[in-house]
Structures are given as structure tokens and as C-alpha cells.
Design a protein that fits this description.
The protein is an alpha/beta fold. The protein has one domain: TIM Barrel (Alpha-Beta Barrel), CATH 3.20.20.210. It has 14 helices and 9 strands. The strands form 2 sheets. A 7-stranded parallel sheet has the order 1-4-5-6-7-8-9, sandwiched between helices. Strands 2-3 form a two-stranded antiparallel ribbon. Helix 6 packs across helix 7 and helix 6 packs across helix 8. The relative contact order is 0.15.
């Protein structure tokens, strides 16, 4: 059995740990998100009270299911050993071009189809497209999950929300190929895109920080790939990072942490992220790019380093290999604080449940 050792949430302890206020007394966990299939499987595995919510996980998130949905998520995250749960905004739509393909995961986790972003030419490639696009209105965002968390989370737990999808949404809307062409052919349109996306994300961030139970403003913006930044580091510093800086300022003004999730190798902008944006911690580490233990050695005295148990490793490794990897990672990353245990990216539905649980269990039993 997994997770037999008692656990009691401590969101203030999590905050102190992320801010490197000394070696923590125990291991803290964090994830960007858990795929709904993982939540369903874990709830059933442990026979949790609200597991019935996950029997129809793709039902629309209607307000009449809000209380059950949030109770199920809260119960699961607390049981697994998390201090924080994620709240999602609704009516915050950014229509984009997608491609679809057959889901090849095992039957019990199969979604039928998977979709991914069209990386070619997107919905916006001209000023006419820009003017016609149905930009989301920040004043109409449905924050009912935020309201629920504010009223119902216990004192020792908090919630977080994602924001500042700056480069991501520009590339989603223009297409990655379209953006690369436009950087040279239509720089004024590119500037307008970053400005519009940034302004909307900032307005959304301003709304979320009014909630007292919100502890973390989590910027989520994939800016790199295996060997470098997706576009010129200087362009990112000039056009994307100022909006992250504004969101971080808003968070810090309201005593919230500002974390950054970004996939890929973003070494060329790390100094700007640390010194100018002033991120409190960085998330998403991949062994083939930079193992989390090396990230801790390189930047761990200046920012928190989060996650990093490589997703590909978790998919393929045996349980004892996972436990050994967790112990070795904690031995290096725990001293001095600033590290939270978690996957290198997110808990994808193709990670075997018991491998994920072995990671959590080894962390819970670790002696700091």
C-alpha cells in the first residue's frame, strides 16, 4: 500500500519552503496539474468518498456540479499530499486552430481523440484577422471555482491559478510558423499581439489576487524546446517577459508567490527571469535538457526549483528505480529549502498510477 504515513497540509510551510527559508522538516509536493484520468484512477484506487464525480470526468463543468467537483478535487489532493489545489476560470476562451488524432493510450485511459495546436499558420495573420478575432473579455470571466475555494478551503490549504500564457497564446493564435515569419514581415502586428495578449492576462491576474486563499500565481508559458528558446531570447526579453514581470509585480504586491512553468531549454533568459521578472521559483525540468539536480546547483540559491522527476523516466522505470531516484534527488535538492517534489512536467495519464504513487510515497517517508 502507498501513502500510509499520516499527512497534514501546511500551506504556510509550503510557502516558506518555496522561498528557501531553511531546510524543511518534511518533503512538500507540487504539480502543475494531474490529468483527469489520473485523478479518477487514484480516487478509485484509494476508494475516496467523492470518487463518483470522476465516473464522468468529461462532463461539462456546470455550476450545478461545482460543489461535488471541488470537494472531489480537494479530497484527492489532500489525500495525495498536496497543500494546494488548482482553480480554473471559465468563459475565458481563446479560439485557435487545432489538429486531432486518434488517442493511442491504453483503453482505460483512452479519450478517443487527442488534439494539439496547429503549429503552421494560425487564426491571426493580418490586421483584419486581428480586428475580427473574438478576444476574451476579462470582465466576463467566471471565477466560481475561485469563489468556492475562498469559502470552503480549510485554513491549512490554499489554491493556485495559471496565468501569463504570453508567448504561448501569441503562437497559438498566429501559429509558430506564422509568428516566425511575422517577426520579420509584420513586426508591428507581432507587437500588437503581445500587447493584447499581455493586457488580457494582466487584467485576469488582477482579479485572482483579490482572493485571500490564493497563494500562488503560476505563470505558465512554454518558451523553449530541447536545445534553446523557441524564438530569439532578446525578442522574449523585450516582448514577453515584461508581461510576466507585471504579473509578478501584481502577485508580490498582494503577498502571493509568482512561479513560472516553462518547458524547454530557457537558459538564455534565466537571468532576466530571476533578476528582472523576479520569479520565486521555476518549474518543468527534463533529463535530456537539464536534470533537476543540476538546476538546483545552478540556481537553487536564488529561486525555488520545482518537480523534475522526469516524465519519461516515470513512465518506464520500475518502482525501486523510482524510489531510488526520488531519494537521490531529495538528498541534493532538499537542503536549504526551495525544492518541492513532483514530476518534470505534469502527471500525464500515460504515467502508470503506481509509479506516480511510488514517487509520492517515497517522498512522504523521506527524512529531511
Amino acid at each position: 500500500m502507498y501513502l500510509q504515513r499520516p499527512f497534514e497540509p501546511d500551506c504556510e510551510g509550503l510557502r516558506k519552503n518555496i522561498m528557501r527559508k531553511g531546510t524543511p522538516e518534511r518533503v512538500y509536493n507540487i504539480e502543475l496539474f494531474l490529468d483527469i484520468e489520473v485523478q479518477k484512477a487514484a480516487s478509485e484506487y484509494f476508494d475516496l468518498k467523492y470518487k463518483e464525480f470522476f465516473e464522468n470526468p468529461y462532463a461539462p463543468p456546470l455550476n450545478d456540479t461545482l460543489d461535488l467537483r471541488m470537494k472531489a478535487r480537494l479530497e484527492l489532493h489532500k489525500f495525495l499530499g498536496y497543500e494546494i489545489i488548482r482553480a480554473y476560470p471559465f468563459n475565458f476562451d481563446w479560439p485557435t486552430k487545432h489538429k486531432e488524432g486518434i488517442d493511442t493510450t491504453p483503453d482505460e485511459k483512452n479519450r478517443g481523440k487527442r488534439s494539439w495546436q496547429d503549429e503552421g499558420i494560425g487564426s491571426i495573420s493580418s490586421w483584419d484577422d486581428f480586428e475580427r478575432y473574438p478576444w476574451p473579455d476579462p470582465s466576463k470571466i467566471d471565477l466560481s471555482e475561485f469563489d468556492w475555494c475562498e469559502k470552503n478551503l480549510p485554513d491549512n490549504m490554499a489554491f493556485y491559478a495559471l496565468t501569463a500564457h504570453i508567448l504561448e497564446y501569441v503562437t497559438f493564435l498566429m501559429g509558430y510558423t506564422g509568428l516566425c515569419y511575422a517577426l520579420y514581415d509584420k513586426p508591428d502586428l507581432v507587437d500588437a499581439m503581445f500587447k493584447r495578449v499581455g493586457e488580457i492576462q494582466v487584467e485576469y491576474t488582477k482579479q485572482m489576487v483579490d482572493y485571500s486563499k490564493l497563494m500562488i500565481v503560476w505563470g505558465s508559458d512554454d518558451m523553449g524546446f530541447k536545445s534553446g528558446c523557441l524564438i530569439s531570447p532578446q525578442v522574449l526579453i523585450e516582448k514577453a517577459l515584461p508581461w510576466h514581470k507585471r504579473c509578478a509585480e501584481i502577485a508580490h504586491q498582494h503577498n502571493k508567490l509568482y512561479l513560472l512553468h516553462s518547458c524547454g531549454k530557457v537558459d538564455d533568459i534565466m537571468e532576466a527571469l530571476i533578476n528582472d521578472v523576479k520569479i520565486d521559483a521555476k518549474h518543468s525540468w527534463e533529463d535530456t535538457i537539464l536534470p533537476v539536480t543540476e538546476a538546483k546547483k545552478r540556481w537553487g540559491d536564488r529561486i525555488g526549483i520545482l518537480g523534475g522527476i522526469d516524465v519519461n523516466f516515470l513512465i518506464n522505470a520500475e518502482e525501486e528505480q523510482i524510489r531510488k531516484r526520488v531519494r537521490e534527488t531529495l538528498d541534493i535538492c532538499i537542503p536549504g529549502g526551495g525544492y518541492c517534489l513532483g514530476t518534470g512536467n505534469s502527471v500525464a495519464n500515460y504515467i502508470p498510477l503506481k509509479n506516480y504513487l511510488a514517487m509520492l510515497d517515497e517522498g512522504r517517508n523521506y527524512s529531511c
